[in-house]
Design brief:
The complex is a heterodimer of chains A (67) and B (139).
Chain A (H helix, E strand, L loop, with lengths): L2 E7 L4 E6 L5 H13 E8 L22
Antiparallel strand pairs in A: 1-2
Chain B lengths: L2 E7 L4 H11 L2 E3 L31 E4 L6 E7 L2 E5 L8 H5 L4 H18 L3 E7 L2 E7 L1
Antiparallel strand pairs in B: 2-3, 3-4, 4-5, 6-7
Helix pairs in contact in B: 1-3
Classes of the chains: A alpha+beta (67), B alpha+beta (139).
Chain lengths: 67, 139
């Protein structure tokens, strides 16, 4: 499931966090919120950002060595 | 999770600001050209960008907060709005709108996100947290 979590503190600070996205899609998907609320002042990318949307999982194959 | 961003709020929607005032029990005074404040700039707080002491007390709209002598001025600047208010304790605003008008800005942001997410057909969950509001938009 893809989610955008928006924390709006009592002193008006806004923090956005994307969950469940892979790759650069998260930036595009949150753009409407950033434009809606103001100006982005800080961005931190996390490991999932560097994964491709359709990246296949590596499958390790073993050869039967005996039997 | 794939990225975390922080955003500085810019108020662009007068109707959502008006709605936020309703949510908080404040009165939005459309076209009120002055707001109540101490009346003299004493230099005890930084001036907002693009505002001089001559601009204080003047506004395009105002917000009346029940129980407060002072009011919040809403000033139009290009394509957005700036909030001006006097934080002096005697005016009563600090306790009602929060530091940096955070309570008012929070109510505005909640309305803004809620209306846009619904317009896009996204589901939203809203939670009251210890120090603020959490909105979860399911994309």
């Amino acid at each position: 499931m893809k989610e955008i979590v928006i924390d709006i503190s009592d002193d008006g600070e806004i923090r956005l966090e994307t969950r469940g996205f892979k790759g650069k899609a998260c930036i595009a998907e949150t753009e409407f919120l950033k434009n809606l609320l103001g100006r982005e002042t800080h961005r931190q990318l996390v490991p999932a950002y560097y994964q491709h949307e359709h990246q296949k999982k590596a499958v390790r194959k073993y050869l039967p060595l005996c039997g | 999770m794939s990225h975390i961003a922080r955003t500085d709020l810019i108020i662009t929607s007068l109707s959502d600001l008006e709605g936020a005032c309703r949510d908080l029990g404040f009165q939005f005074m459309a076209d009120q050209k002055t707001y109540r404040w101490y009346g003299h700039w004493v230099g005890d707080a930084p001036m907002p960008d693009g505002i001089t002491s001559e601009d204080l007390g003047k506004c395009d709209h105002a917000i009346r907060v029940p129980g407060c002598d002072y009011q919040v001025g809403v000033v139009k600047r290009d394509d957005h709005y700036i909030l001006l208010w006097d934080n002096w304790s005697a005016g009563g605003l600090a306790g009602k709108i929060g530091p940096n008008a955070g309570i008012l800005k929070q109510a505005y942001s909640v309305r803004r996100v809620r209306s846009e997410a619904r317009r896009k057909g996204y589901r939203i969950r809203e939670l009251r947290m210890k120090q603020g509001v959490r909105m979860v938009v399911i994309v």
